[in-house]
Amino acid sequence: MRFEYPALELLIAGRRIGVEGRKTEPVLNPSTGEALAQLPHATRSDIEEAVAAAAKGFQLWRGVAANERARVLRRTADLMRERRELLARLITLELGKPIGEARLEVEQAAGMFEWNAEEGKRTYGRVIPARAENIQQIAIKEPIGPIAAFSPWNAPAITPSRKISGALAAGCSVIIKPSEETPATALAIGGMLLEAGLPDGVLSIVFGDPIAISRQLIEAQAIRGITFTGSTNVGKQLAALAVQGMKRMTLELGGHAPVIIFDDVDIDAVAKSAAMAKYRNAGQVCTSPTRFYVHESVHDHFVEKFAEHANGIKIGDGFDSATVMGPLANARRVESMDAFVGDARSRGIRVAAGGERTGNRGFFYRPTLLANSDNDCMAANIEPFGPLAMTAPFGSFDEAIALANRLPFGLAAYAMTKDITRAKAVAGAIESGNVILNHWQVSLPETPFGGHKESGVGLEGGVEGLLSFQNTKFVSQASV
């Protein structure tokens, strides 16, 4: 069953602003390449209004009891689950993700609101024993202030939900600029927050020129923190702006996840699960396993089985129940895949699966595997962010670790081994914010998530994520 894509708006201080009289851009359906709707762009005055509303909304929201804030967030989670099908269909229309994956994304996004609703009631301070009898020393937690949030297109429900729910649970107000390519999902969640009782002004949702909006928001005196998910290059630019105002930063940046596969595992089973993990969301996941380093004794067998599973993946429209992998999000990703494959072929690297576009409309690309890649090819050094994996053999433990750590990224890393001692050694040696052993699930609402090296600063999710939106204030009082 299809449904009508909604008219798109800006949401500023509870006021919905349509396309009339504004610059707009089309939002495309990646399965067809056709326009779904026109998206209005915010003006400078719109952003000024949103900042003023956030400043006022922060003073209101920070004074709301934690239990009441939790009620609003829990009610939002309930509404998201009640309208799971609506949100899932928006995700599939805007991103192309298969509908089953979209439903799972909605559930995880709702779980983030639920988790932060409860954890927000537990932002305890502490009493510090004093050195004198007449002194009381306490450390208390306070919200840092209005937050500017920026989220990409690849997880249109999860990433905005993680940022919004964490900030609101901590007592902050939020202005979020989601991706212009997947706007309706974030707008729907924003509407549910208002329906759940969030006061006007505590949340605004804006779209437009990313450079102009990010600069104006970060330079605004009222904004006290930024949270950004996206590329390392853009993250560095935003960090340079934020540091001018000494503003708190949480940056979840690019990755290029290595996978070390030792020779003591069931290679057939690992190859199957690896292909499923790699091509989830067409590989457009920041933690997507991409660089497969496989012990030399089982490397060729792994390549054979992985390629077999990749070639068997059903590609198509996300609303087709038989579809396993949908389209890429936009034409840029298709062109990027062609560049990776072209570079590999020019170096004599074997394309063991895929390596070409498919279909005569939309942005579809076959699941691709580059076998026996070298360290100089594009795929070994630049995150593909698409349905492309590469393999290379290794001989020793130290060689595997060196391969995994050779890039300046450290967001997610994986290893497969039955040896408990070896697994512990891998976890300690890999330079990454998230190390996953013998499975593929990286992030949950209750777990911390963030990168090391050039993959980010700060943490989202779990207790640590909530603390990213809070200041610690030390108060020492003497009795008189």
Automatic annotation (TrEMBL):
Keywords tagged on the record: Oxidoreductase
Pfam families according to UniProt: Aldedh
Coiled coil: none
GO MF terms, alphabetically ordered: oxidoreductase activity, acting on the aldehyde or oxo group of donors, NAD or NADP as acceptor
Aldehyde dehydrogenase domain residues: 23-475
KW Oxidoreductase (keyword) present: yes
Similarity field: Belongs to the aldehyde dehydrogenase family.
Name assigned to this protein: NAD-dependent succinate-semialdehyde dehydrogenase
Species name: Bradyrhizobium centrolobii
Organism ancestry: Bacteria, Pseudomonadati, Pseudomonadota, Alphaproteobacteria, Hyphomicrobiales
